[in-house]
Design goal:
Elements lengths: L1 E7 L2 E8 L10 H45 L6 H15 L4 H13 L9 H4 L7 H8 L1 H9 L9 H6 L18 H16 L10 H10 L7 H12 L16 H6 L1
Antiparallel strand pairs: 1-2
Helix pairs in contact: 2-3, 2-8, 2-10, 3-8, 8-9
The structure holds fe (ii) ion.
The site of fe (ii) ion has 5 residues, from loops.
Length: 260
């Protein structure tokens, strides 16, 4: 039998062992040297895996921090981002999206309104309906969001969700008025609108769920993508769409995405 320590930065984190060498002789000192080299490779691989994990965690923590920043800017959202995330994932489940798309959707849902950080306080916090000029400034948040996120290459994949979540399938949305809307943006659009309709704002009382659903169905194929609305309605019937006003911070972890 031979054993070799697995060391990371001088600290032993484990031991590897080889037993019952095939052949007539037992293990030689050369075998042990070779085995130690192998143990060093194992240590490097484990260390790399740990560093990768750390980078991933930093990435998610940074995204959560950005999402929290939006919530803090807008005093009336009261957990909007979290609910949009929840509704979007319920739709994704009904549409049986793959893990990779679901992961991108998750990040996109959390960051969809990141551009609101760049909207002035008197518009963002206004407790009355906005004027036309204010509406066009507010609508600019999709472009501002892209401006912010484009600085993070690892978040490039969330740009379509941010840019297109206010587009309409009939081409009358903004910012581009395009009918070619990526699926992630079509999902966020439904989740976002449902939450907007059902949430009470200082100047407007939130509508009950059944009326909000009616609104989504009426505008299905015009403002919203029909299959996405259908998926949302199915999710609601299954009890996956519930309202909550929790102000807990947004938790975004890799494990959560995989277990979803
Ligand atoms: Fe938005």
């Amino acid at each position: 039998m031979i054993c070799a320590p697995v060391k990371i930065h001088g600290k032993v984190i484990g031991v590897i062992q080889a037993i019952n060498r095939i052949g007539v002789t037992g293990f030689t000192s050369d075998d042990l040297k070779l085995f130690q080299l192998f143990a060093n490779q194992v240590a490097i691989a484990l260390d790399n895996a740990r560093l990768y994990e750390e980078v991933q965690e930093t990435f998610y923590a940074t995204s959560e921090a950005l999402a929290e920043a939006i919530e803090k800017r807008d005093p009336y959202t009261g957990g909007h981002t979290k609910r949009v995330l929840k509704y979007s994932l319920a739709i994704a489940e009904e549409l049986v999206l793959d893990i990779e798309t679901t992961e991108t959707l998750k990040l996109s849902a959390v960051l969809h309104d990141i551009g609101k950080i760049g909207i002035t306080d008197n518009i963002l916090g206004k407790d009355a309906p906005l004027t036309d000029t204010e509406v066009s400034e507010m609508n600019n948040h999709t472009k501002l969001g892209v401006e912010i996120i484009k600085h993070v290459p690892q978040l490039k994949k969330v740009i379509p969700g941010i840019r297109y979540h206010h587009e309409r399938v009939d081409g009358f949305g903004y910012p581009e008025g395009t009918k070619k809307i990526p699926l992630i943006a079509r999902i966020i659009s439904v989740a976002d609108t449902f939450d907007a309709i059902t949430t009470t704002r200082p100047y407007r009382k939130g509508l009950p769920i059944d009326l909000a659903l009616k609104e989504l169905k009426t505008n299905s194929g015009k403002q919203f993508d029909r299959p996405v609305v259908n998926a949302f309605v199915r999710a609601q019937k299954k009890g996956k769409i519930t309202r909550n006003r929790s102000k807990n911070s947004i938790k975004l972890t890799k494990t959560e995405i995989i277990s979803h």
